[in-house]
């Protein structure tokens, strides 16, 4: 099969648990390091699927590579190549497909509960899971583009995930590993300090203290999502 293309936009925001999942299932993948200057492919059909990770930039920033990613996302929809977006990746998908990316009322940094929507599409993706503690690190969010089905919400961000057919966009981070959480806490120390009084921001100490109990459940949810996503992979 053709490899899955994984787009990394920031060095610290790699594929994490998703890469572990693909390796466990012997599925080939190729890392496209946008942060290191790799070129954005022009043809989605060169891959069996496209996966967009997070990043510190905004989907609205005037960055050269974004001008190529947005039409690539539309090309993937046109040619039925499944996509998966994590945080910034989900925002890029929303923007490319007619949604709007803008500031969330508050930053969400750390662990926070998300609720699964009560609709058939949500049950297809999440199975029997009705809510779970996800990891968050964002100040912006997306609206649902035309044709999207709402899947997840949190107390501070109503649009935490949507699906359009075989394409899944997430605002929250289900791909986290212990090392990623430690790295983000270190790199985002100033951001955490500046938003310490926000109702949706945890301290680095709290995030890391809770990860041992919460990561196993998060990985179970991620596995459910990733398995369902695999069903749509192009040959």
Helical/strand content category: alpha/beta
Determine and state the CATH class: Alpha Beta
Trace the largest sheet across and list its strands.
2-1-3-4-9-8-7-5-6
User: Largest sheet at a glance?
Assistant: 9 strands, mixed
Shape: globular
Strand content: 25-35%
Order of helices and strands: EHEEHEHEHEEEEHHH
Rg is 16 Å
Uncertain stretches: none
Query: CATH fold name, please?
Result: Rossmann fold
Work out the number of β strands.
9
Can you walk through the features of this model?
With 235 residues, the protein is α/β, with parallel strands linked by helices. The protein has one domain: Rossmann fold (3-Layer(aba) Sandwich). It is 35% helix and 27% strand. The chain is built from 7 helices and 9 strands, in the order E-H-E-E-H-E-H-E-H-E-E-E-E-H-H-H. Strands 2-1-3-4-9-8-7-5-6 form a 9-stranded mixed β-sheet. Strand 8 (157-164) and strand 9 (167-170) form a beta hairpin. Helix 2 crosses helix 3 and helix 5 (178-187) packs across helix 7 (204-230). It is globular. The chain starts with a strand and ends in a 5-residue tail after the last helix.
Sum up the structure in keywords.
single chain, 7 helices, 235 residues, alpha/beta, Rossmann fold, 9-stranded mixed β-sheet
Can you summarize this structure?
This protein has about 240 residues and is of the alpha/beta class.
List the helices and strands and how they pair.
Layout: E1 4-8, H1 17-24, E2 29-33, E3 49-52, H2 64-78, E4 83-86, H3 88-96, E5 101-116, H4 120-126, E6 131-142, E7 149-154, E8 157-164, E9 167-170, H5 178-187, H6 189-194, H7 204-230
Parallel strand pairs: 1-2, 1-3, 3-4, 4-9
Antiparallel strand pairs: 5-6, 5-7, 7-8, 8-9
Helix pairs in contact: 2-3, 5-7
